[in-house]
Amino acid sequence: MMEPLAALKQVTDVEVVGRIPAFLEAHVLKALELIGAGSIGRGQLAKELRLGEGTIRTLVGRLKGLGLLSISREGMSLTESGREILSGFHELLMSADVPETTMTVDSRNHAVLVYGAARVVRKGIEQRDVALMAGAKGATTLVREEGRLLMPGMEDPLDPTVIEYIEEAMNPANGDVVIIGSSDDAFLAEIGAKSAALKLLEL
Predict the structure, then answer these.
(1) Which are the contacts of 37, defined by CB distance < 8 A and separation ≥ 6?
(2) Which of 62, 115, 151, 185 lies most in the core, judged by the most C-beta atoms within 10 Å?
(3) Which one, of 187, 188, 167, lies nearest residue 178 by Cα?
(4) Residue 6: how many CA atoms within 13 Å on its side-chain side?
(5) pLDDT tens-digit profile of 82-114?
């Protein structure tokens, strides 16, 4: 089976695509999630990912070329290999929208939990920068240590409502990381958080 991260990199590989692609690895992951949720057409996928038709043709062509999706009259669906890749990501991370909070810089927030990645987190600045480059307004990084979620380098108390929400929705364990992407746009918050999480998995 192809490694999940390696699959995303092959789809966005400049040498394979022939130019810098107009989509990120987070877009590819989101595409796999959308296709995996049920058969979807190319037009709807373009709308959901906010990408142009030409860009979607490139993305879909790469996924099909790697044997990760099949196309029929009903739309696109994941192949067995595609489902294995998506399942592989589910073993590495999970994500969920979270409520508005004073812990983040904007109103729409999306959290991604990365299992067992706390050892490679410094102060969370790196995750913020990746999220910004992906179009989010910022990112807040939390690590789970000694039974509670903490913000690296910060002593200020965290928003208890959101912490409780994350605890219930994601059930992080010691050593896990939660990255909250933030924007006034829910989609950009999600893409920012997922971009930061995927970068963290490379470390």
Answers:
(1) none
(2) 62
(3) 167
(4) 4
(5) 999 999 999 999 999 999 999 999 999 999 999
Query: Is the CB of residue 44 less than 8 Å from the CB of residue 31?
Result: no
146: phi > 0 → left, psi -120 to 50 → alpha, else beta; which?
left
pLDDT in tens, 111-147: 999 999 999 999 999 999 999 999 999 999 999 999 9
Contact 54, 61 (CB under 8 A): no
Residue 2 C-alpha from the chain's centroid = 19
Paired with 94 in beta bridges are: 113
What's the chain's Rg over C-alpha atoms? 17
**pTM score, whole prediction:** 0.95
